[in-house]
Amino acid sequence: MSTEPRRDRLDQPVEPGRVRLPRLNPETFGRWSEAIARGMGTAQFIVWMTMVIGAWFAWNTLAPADLRFDPYTFTFLTLILSLQASYAAPLILLAQNRQADRDRLAMEEDRRRAAMQKADTEYLAREIASLRIAMGEVATRDFLRSELARLADELDEAALRREKRARMEWEDERS
């Protein structure tokens, strides 16, 4: 017995009532619909559409009666514009849905990044606070300078006292 699925076998009849529609890649169709919607949303499209409709009106009103293809009521033009609108609306909606999905993903990514930045900022704020507390326990540059200056003064005073004592002893020995 064959392991092939029934639908791929040519020696078996197709089940009645099943219509097989072509399978389209949704991503490809979505990009295609976005390209159409992007094109229809331009001034160039409006200008070209206006020119085509103007040419249609001009041809079907000014041309000889036997060359006109759409009589005065412009039924065929109405049909073409309705057909365009019936395809344009779903394509535009599909493009908008895809854009909304992209915007949602971008917003989620922005939220994630903002949460990470907030956590990093809070961490850095805690680190700075702990450094400030630790700096209260550590000698600062100004404190060290003042202590060194005080010690230098004390050493100078001690040197002056020794010098005076040595001078007094020298004078006592001389006298």
TrEMBL record:
Pfam families: DUF1003. It comes from Paractinoplanes rhizophilus. The chain crosses the membrane at residues 41-59, 71-95. This is DUF1003 domain-containing protein. InterPro entries: DUF1003. Keywords: Membrane, Transmembrane, Transmembrane helix.
